[in-house]
Amino acid sequence: MESAKLFELITHHLKDLIILFDKGFSIIYISPSVKRLLGYELFEIVGKKMDIFAIEEQLLVGEPQILSCKHKHREERLMLESLIKPVFSNDHIECYLGILRDVDVRESLRKELERSLKKEKSLTEHKSKLISMASHEMKSPLSTIASSLELLSIYLKEDEHSKSISLERHIEKMQTQIDRLNSIVDELLLMEKKDSYHQVVVSENLDLIKVIRNVIKESFSTNDQKKISVKSIEPEVHINSNQILLHHIFKNLIENSLKYSKPEKSKVQILIEPSKSQVDVSVKDNGIGIHPLEKDKLFDRFYRSNRTTEITGFGIGLSVVKECATMLDAKVSIKSSIDKGSTFKISFPK
After folding, report:
1. For 107-129, how does the pLDDT look when each residue is reduced to its tens digit (9 = 90+)?
2. Assign residue 34 a region: left if phi > 0, alpha if psi is -120 to 50, beta otherwise?
3. Sign of the C-alpha dihedral, residues 105, 111, 114, 119?
4. Whole-angstrom Cα distance, residue 320 to residue 6?
5. Radius of gyration (Cα) for the chain, nearest Å?
6. Which of 9-18, 131-140, 175-184, 210-219 ranks highest by mean pLDDT?
7. How far apart are alpha carbons 177 and 175 in whole angstroms?
8. CA 110, 115, 118: angle at the middle one, nearest 5?
9. Residue 31 has what DSSP assignment?
């Protein structure tokens, strides 16, 4: 069989794309498989350059590369693996031979695998942070409880008057730390449920002012309550919402405001502003503020600012706020100045 006929037979049945380029990388030959792969007729390609396929990559010679090529009739692009080699004649480059193979399925699988690996890596990092922070955060309340129990055993041996005073004080300490542990566990469970499945939010008509006042009463000490003010232009503000999610939102916002302010100067102002379609609730503090570069990371799980390393924390409070707000179709915004305080605003739909 003649070489020309043999070459024609091979190229007509070959799934790969064979291209001959001249020295300027204009196409002087392309195999018929171009119609099957990219939808073009031979006469449309010969004499043109590879930019007819709208490739964005620069052609490489001597090493494989992945080219994203545009199909003539379809919107999606096809991934082709290319290898281009020079063809020599009398020690001079005569032309270039390129072989392109359809690797679209392989590349799609590779990208999906990379996404899965990235997600798995992120989950692993989150779990590591969770273990580290949980160990630290839960150790502190447990140490307080253990210390109080030890002191109680001593006081029981003392006179009746000192017993009564000391017992009450240390029982209150233990109850506070137990509540703190329960709160941490509740928020971790809330996040786990949201990740595991789509949680249905059950709404009811609630007076937002009453909800916020109950959060303050139930979650904060008498001393902290004196630092918190609630103002509204109306005596009652009703919205359709979920009481549990609202509790998590305001408990964490107020807790953060108190935590990141100097104890002797801390002051939290809560302003409730209803309008026709929504209710805006602003929680303002006079704390350390937030650096502009940290605002995008602020609601990430387990994120802790470098400026707060000396303050104990789990790094989940604001992520809980964001996720609960999202579940309620509410929007969260923030204004902050370093060393002048922060204002978190939650806009709830009515």
Report:
1. 888 888 888 888 888 777 776 66
2. alpha
3. negative
4. 69
5. 33
6. 210-219
7. 5
8. 120
9. -
